[in-house]
Design brief:
alpha/beta; Rossmann fold; five-stranded mixed β-sheet
């Protein structure tokens, strides 16, 4: 499989923006169509929020950026790879259908409240070959919530940083940079029109959990919002290098999950 390095980033971002923009420019009011049956489906995990973590009318933190982020990312995968990608799905951990999907995504995991049954199911899913990507959680308090849940899932397995030489970083795209991937809410326009990133949660960190055999089973996007970068790939206000990095990481996650 040919690899694409950092010089591909600009063309990648332009291609992604074009894929989303052209769909909108044609006046299409509904999301692009994806097959019901396919090799790969973007699976988003449903969960119950921690008490007092909701926002009134809000329907649950698991829905953050849904379905736009999922649809836009699927468009990018379809455009940039040969993966046969189908329509997006979302299920709770306790749904047996989860075993049909090798890759799952959970956002805002600093707010999830996993039951004992969900903890057991997540462990079993990962040990059977599943792969989980977690995203869009910030600061020490949200980290503690996530860390405590992972201790219940894999108490014996440490959380480690993803190194530059990790196979994940080179499985399709060679990723060398670690640019901050912020939420849209963290962007401000500075002098000269330059887009600035303003967060108070600390630097971005790419971390992972491996199973006892050494296979990465959880990829952790901490202090960043990769889902927003997928969702807003067509917005001039969202910096190109951040969008490109988010898509390269996302696609590498998928290919790793499907080949390990």
């Amino acid at each position: 499989m040919a690899k694409a390095g950092p010089r591909f980033a600009a063309g990648l971002a332009i291609a992604l923006a074009a894929a989303v923009f052209l769909t909108r420019a044609r006046g299409q009011q509904r999301p692009p169509e994806f097959a019901v049956k396919a090799e790969f489906h973007f699976l988003r995990l449903e969960y119950v929020d921690l008490p007092n973590a909701g926002r009134g009318f809000f329907r649950g933190w698991w829905r953050q950026d849904w379905p736009e982020a999922d649809v836009h990312f699927a468009q990018g995968v379809r455009r940039l790879t040969r993966i046969d990608i189908g329509e997006g799905r979302h299920v709770p951990l306790t749904d047996d259908r989860i075993y049909s999907y090798p890759w799952a995504y959970a956002t805002q995991v600093g707010y999830w409240d996993l039951s004992d049954a969900e903890i057991r199911r997540l462990r079993d899913y990962l040990l059977r070959g599943g792969f989980l990507v977690v995203d869009d959680f910030w600061g020490e308090q949200e980290w503690r919530v996530f860390q405590n849940s992972m201790r219940r899932v894999f108490g014996e397995q440490p959380i480690t940083d993803i190194g530059e030489d990790d196979p994940l970083m080179h499985i399709l795209f060679d990723i060398e940079e670690r640019t901050q991937v912020p939420g849209l809410r963290h962007l401000r326009r500075g002098s000269g029109g330059r887009i600035l990133v303003q967060t108070h949660a600390g630097p971005p960190q790419w971390r992972a959990i491996h199973d006892p055999k050494g296979r990465m089973v959880v990829a952790i996007n901490y202090n960043m919002d990769v889902g927003d970068a997928w969702e807003h790939a067509d917005m001039p206000e969202y910096p190109m290098e951040m969008t490109a990095l988010a898509y390269r990481f996302g696609i590498n996650y998928i290919i790793y999950a499907m080949t390990h």
